[in-house]
Input
Amino acid sequence: MTSVNEIYHYLDETYPYCLQESYDNSGIMVDCGKDIEKVVVSLDITNAVVDYAASIGADLILSHHPVIFHPIKRIDSDSPVFHLIASGISAISAHTNFDIADGGVNDALASKLSLQNIMPVFKVSECHVKGSLRENYIGRAGELAEELSPYDFARYVGERLLGRHAVEYVNGGRPVKKVAVGGGACGEFIFECTRYGIDAFVTGEAKHHEMIYAAEHGITLIAAGHYATETVALDNLAATLRDGFPDLSVEVTRMDAPLKYTDWMID
Output
């Protein structure tokens, strides 16, 4: 049988938890003390995800976003944490450590966009991993197989991530060849794109001043949605767990998708 701690320590070998940012709360969220036989992998732990996990007899939810991020002062009966405990379901998250680690969110996003010659960009911290000092980079950069116009690249991203053309974007006014990616809320890294020679930056969400900066510096900025830019990595997370624990039943759910996209494009 497999315990919550055994799964946590295995994940720590693949996506070291020491990589997580100082503000983060990745790791074991809830440990109900039960052996684990069935796991649901999701981006978030919502009440709907907990209800689904309970309906299929899952013992653990492995999520990207922590269900407990800030200290909790009370647990209400309608909260996901309450539902986890009441259902006897444990929870582990792999958040910024999974963003940063090899094979994590941003490698998956770069792969989904078929980028070539991938390299790490956007240094965020340093930490010791297995006795060696490591520089941690949260983003990835690579090249498209062929140059695209900003408009065609925005359509391409929408098709690859959403199956439709539902992205906001800033037209950088020059052809796109070298692309950086930072899934989720990584708009702040637009300010580093110029020193890496980036033509386009793909993230989940960007603030107004970040979009203005992109426009003024000739960088195409794609805001394809927080969920869409991170859900691409869930299959990697599930595959990692299956490799380490072949006897576990591991299922990915995307029932927590918060938005419905329509076909529109800002040019």
